[in-house]
Amino acid sequence: MSLEFETIAAISTPPGEGAIGIVRLSGDEALEIADRVYRSGTKKLINQKSHTLHYGHIENPKTGKTVDEVMVSVMRAPKTFTREDVVEINCHGGITSVNQVLQVVLQFGARLAEPGEFTKRAFLNGRIDLSQAEAVMDLIRAKTDRAMHVALQQLDGNLSTLIRNLRSDILDTLAQVEVNIDYPEYDDVETLTSQLLVEKAKLVKAQIQQLLQTASQGKILREGLATAIIGRPNVGKSSLLNFLLQEEKAIVTEVAGTTRDIIEEYVNVRGVPLKLVDTAGIRETEDIVERIGVEKSRQALANSDLVLLVFNQNEKLTEEDRLLIKATDQNHRIVILNKMDLPNKLDLTKLEELVDPDSIVKTSILTKSGIDKLEEKIAYLFFAGQTGEKDATYVSNVRHIALLNDAESALDDVITGIESGMPVDLVQIDMTRSWELLGEITGDSVQDELLTQLFSQFCLGK
Ligand code: GDP
Fold first, then answer.
1. For residues 111 and 29, what is the distance between their CA atoms, to the nearest angstrom?
2. Which end of the chain is more exposed for a tag (fewer CB within 10 A), N or C?
3. Cα–Cα distance between 355 and 333 in angstroms, integer?
């Protein structure tokens, strides 16, 4: 038996409390190993039909001690995620019981899976291509329904199909070029071939550009829209933040390994994940204007995809307000006139001279009014009203974006090469390069180290 196909096992559910935890096994011996620890009268999993579910207990055969009461699913190759025999043991959630089940399975024949090894096997066994494997990773990390939708589509192979079509277009062209060169039927074959190359290069380039245009939205869906809430003290920033965090199901991720653990807070606003930037700092520091003066704050603003600039419309515009407007002029910005429940003292006409009137939203966080308008604006800003295009293929993966950019510049080389009268066989090299670069997205042309590096980014149990 080759090492590659040893039976592997891992906990496939996230760590922590949950009603159910799953230990997954995959490999030639998955059923035998499970049978060594599974008890349900005389029932043996190996005799069961594929894709069936069985009640029983997990027992340590050496000590005879029952570990947990479980439901076990039996899924035989090839109709499984890894295309190998797969057994999933559904046990009680919580850290100890899942861990104990894993321990006995490991003790009786399975090897602990490396991070991403299940997905790697799915890829190696030809079930999914590389961009789909990456989609699995995105799916695990998806922060909103919309991000999940994009990842699911990628998993379905939308992007792969698109890329494969582009590649086959390029390949057809290259074949045609070969034919023209080898069997010149006409005197002007060189001109014809050049024309063909330029036309195709332009066509493919246009489609790549279209894909790249979706990249900014895709990236936001994946990583969250870096959002800063700023304004003078007491205008209602914390109230807004708390409202968003409570109402919109905050997702808090801890990023360990930095000098102090940073807490990233995400809120989901109509499918747009907002990553609230440096919110702790904003809550702690009263003198926001002073902070704006500090280079670090400027940097934070520069890195923000969106600024929510809050004013209290119960007070006149101050010099500080004007400074804040100036400091955020280059940002995507939504201007919030808060405390609408109180009498108006802020001169709206004056404000409209300083900021885009369309960017203004009126709210009262106290009475919870106007916040839906704010959310609408946020969603509109980033989908530009494209809700109908939910099914568009988004490119969101950094590696894919880089490869598409490289392929585009290879095609540029084809175009400028022909236009400056370079010989066809030299231009052909650039065309071939674009074909190879696109192939790296789907993994059709990909190196071993890249694979190892990619799959190691997965979490354990995937
Ligand atoms: P921050 O300093 O900008 O974070 O402001 P806070 O969120 O701490 O709010 C300052 C005060 O304004 C608090 O007492 C809030 O309850 C109050 N506040 C916030 N939003 C509103 C609003 O829409 N209307 C009224 N009347 N008060 C508000």
1. 11
2. N
3. 9
**Closest ligand 1 atom, residue 241 Cα:** 7
Residue 61 sits in the same domain as residue 113: yes
Give the span between the Cα atoms of 197 and 176, in whole angstroms.
10
Whose structure tokens read 């109230």?
239
What integer pLDDT is reported at residue 255 of this predicted model? 41
Buried b (16+ CB within 10 A) or exposed e, 224-234: bbbbbbbbbee
| DSSP character string of 352-374 | HHHS-GGGEEE-BTTTTBSHHHH
User: What's the pLDDT score for residue 178?
Assistant: 80
pLDDT higher than threshold 50 for residue 3: no
Between 460 and 375, the more confident residue is 375
Question: Is residue 31 domain-shared with residue 85, that is, in the same domain?
Answer: yes
DSSP structure class, residue 393: P
**How many Å apart are CA 202 and CA 414, to the nearest integer?**
9
- Give the tens place of pLDDT for each residue, 395-424: 777 788 889 999 999 999 999 999 999 988
**Which residue lies with its CA nearest to atom 9 of ligand 1?**
236
370 within ligand 1 shell (Cβ under 6 A): no
Which amino acid would we find at residue 267? Answer: V
Q: Which atom of ligand 1 is nearest to the CA of 365?
A: 23
Residues 31 and 54 placed together within one structural domain of the fold:
yes
Q: How far is the CA of 231 from the centre of ligand 1 (A)?
A: 12
**Ligand 1 geometric centre to CA of 245 (Å):** 16
Q: Counting Cβ atoms within 10 Å, is residue 275 exposed (0-12), middle (13-18) or buried (19+)?
A: buried
Distances (CA, A) of 207 to 53, 165, 166, 175: 46, 11, 8, 21
Residue 371 lies in a domain: yes
For residue 459, give the DSSP letter: P
β-strands 333-338, 225-231 pairing: unpaired
Cα–chain center distance at 462 = 16
Mean pLDDT, the chain, rounded, equals 81
Same domain, 358 and 238: yes
d(CA 83, CA 127): 7
Q: What is the pLDDT of residue 51?
A: 95
375 alpha carbon – ligand 1 mean position (Å): 19
| pTM > 0.85: yes or no | no
pLDDT of residue 386: 47
- Ligand 1 close to Cβ of residue 366 (< 6 A): yes
* Banded model confidence at residue 39, pLDDT cuts 50, 70, 90: very high
Range of the domain at 322: 226-383
Residue 200 has pLDDT above 80, yes or no: yes
pLDDT at position 345, please?
A: 96
Two tokens, residue 310: 């809050």
